[in-house]
Input
Amino acid sequence: MRYNRRMVPNAPPHGAIAHVAINGDDLDRSRTFYERMFGWTFTPWGPPGFFQIATRGTAQPIAAFQQRRELIDGRKTVGFECTVAVDDVAKALKLGAELGGRVVMEPVTIPGVCHLAFIEDPSGNVLGLANYAV
Output
């Protein structure tokens, strides 16, 4: 599906960094670290072990916090996970593969949120590709 502003008026444009997630093994310990370090607040949202993060002084979520996972079998996702908005997830995956990337998760739909897939760039960095026209 192509991005359509009439369908999703606040959807980020193609190429925008649209989502950042922090992965953790011990969610309670990591939450305490970020709460005390930066004053962030964590609100449960969606599946178990998934939270939206807001910074001090705002209720608007800026990122997500979630249980660590393996997008690539045998390799834990480390660092901050970035998702980029695209007009068409399938086309973006195809182009990424042509440019030397590797698809690590085929497209799925998160109802009411986006169509999402993950690709590994030629340097081994994994990034999400999301189309918010759902």
Notes: The first strand starts at residue 17 and ends at 24. The helical segments are 27-38, 89-98. Confidence is low (pLDDT under 50) at residues 1-6.
